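Researcher: We're teaching a course module on how sequence relates to structure. For the next exercise, students receive a sequence and then see the predicted structure as tokens, so they can try to spot secondary structure elements on their own. Here is the exercise chain.
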Amino acid sequence: MSDLDALQHKIRKFADDRNWDQYHTPKNLSMALIAECAELVEHFQWLTEEQSSKIPAETLEEISHELADVFVYLLRLSDKLGVNLVAAAHSKMALNEIKYPADKVHGSAMKYTEYQD
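Model: And here is the predicted structure for the students to work with:
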């Protein structure tokens, strides 16, 4: 069992032990995920680029908790939908390599629709 599988199992058991599975529908989990993403963004909202790269230790700990919340909800949602996140990420990266060939986009932040024929 991989670390990711073990964590997913732990999250599933945590929800089961509390009888929360009834609330963990894809709709609810996706809404909880976006709420946690918003809490993460709040830490960076008014910072300059430089400030966002030099986070104080206390704030970094808070950010790590928000990242964990995002990760937990993402894992829970993928579990409920039967999506293997590692496989999905590999598949998406393969698509991204096609959409964003290094020789065309190196050093550019353009979206693929801006440079494709």
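Model: If you want an answer key for the exercise: The two ends are 44 Å apart (CA to CA). The chain has a mean pLDDT of 95.
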